[in-house]
Amino acid sequence: MIQFGGCSLLGSAVVDDDRSWSMQDYEGAIARWCPGCGDHAVLAAVQRLLEDEQLPPEQTVFVSGIGCSSRFPHYLKTYGFHGLHGRALPVALGVKLRRPELHVFAVMGDGDCCSIGGGHWLHTTRYNPNITAIMLDNGVYGLTKNQTSPTSPQGLKSNTQPRGAFLPGMNPISTTLGIKNASFVAQTGDWLPDHIYATLKKAYHHKGFAFVRILQRCPAYTDHLFTDAMRDPSRIELLLHPNGISVPELEGIYKNHTYHDPSDLTNGFRLAQDDGRFRLGLFYQNERLPVYEEVRAVPAKSAEQKLEILNKELDRYAV
Ligand code: SF4
Fold this sequence. Notes:
- With 319 residues, this protein is of the alpha/beta class.
- It is 30% helix and 20% strand.
- It has helices at 39-53, 88-98, 110-116, 118-127, 172-177, 193-205, 227-231, 248-251, 265-272, 292-295, 303-315; strands spanning 2-4, 7-10, 13-16, 60-64, 79-82, 103-109, 132-137, 140-141, 147-148, 184-189, 210-215, 236-240, 257-259, 278-285.
- Strands 5-4-6-7-11-10-14-12-13 form a nine-stranded mixed β-sheet, sandwiched between helices. A three-stranded antiparallel β-sheet has the order 1-2-3, with no helix packed on it.
- Helix 1 (39-53) crosses helix 6 (193-205) and helix 3 (110-116) crosses helix 4 (118-127).
- Residues 1-13 have low confidence and may be disordered.
- Iron/sulfur cluster is lined by residues 33-34, 37, 39, 68, 138, 142-143, 218-221.
């Protein structure tokens, strides 16, 4: 990037470094999710984060797969890629590897991430690129009208398993924590806007792959999944620590607190186990782990050096 006083040359565009952005600079099309869908609250928290962090829209990329939540890029005035089912993470990783200076976010649903995208989820966690991954978990395939997803609780009736889900739902938090090189795992709920915001802010500032599971209401198909947690604060447990996620106003409402040091993976894993409680906060964070785009970075070469390498390679085939 070439600097000219208060301006810089980024690619072929002249950029004024004194610019500032308002909320309108991040607002895309009007969201077409169902009324009351939890995705609306997550979008609002993301827009608030973008404005507070003053992320330049042209240097910010939202990549999604397929599903209700994957409409996210349409509703933001940043760069976006609404891709293929389950493939948000490899596309986001490709963007990050090619343009490591960009702010890259991946938005996925539970079916998108944990089913067809399961392999990508596992390996992107292991690669640990500097990407913020937001998984909106409503426990169902909503876009395709009520089908059992990997996180559907056992017994949940759907169009594909009308007698109830045969298997227990998978646990995305403990699964992610079990992957080698996982560096940031947190959970929040869509009905707590300040907690979503604080969680996303922490995730955005994390160096490495930040995996955030958001418990998301789907009034169309799985509204009841989180009703108890919303109405009865005793069902919620906040994970608290000076290095964790802090929303002091919520601590008086949600009185179940667990003091958890997010550097303690073993305890984070224990807390992630299903026992009927909704634990919100930071389960684990480690910023000392290898970050993929850094460990695989190839030192920049001049045109002469590239030519020399090319000639040396061609000489191998000389006869
Ligand atoms: Fe939201 Fe569910 Fe409607 Fe999809 S079907 S937009 S997840 S409420």
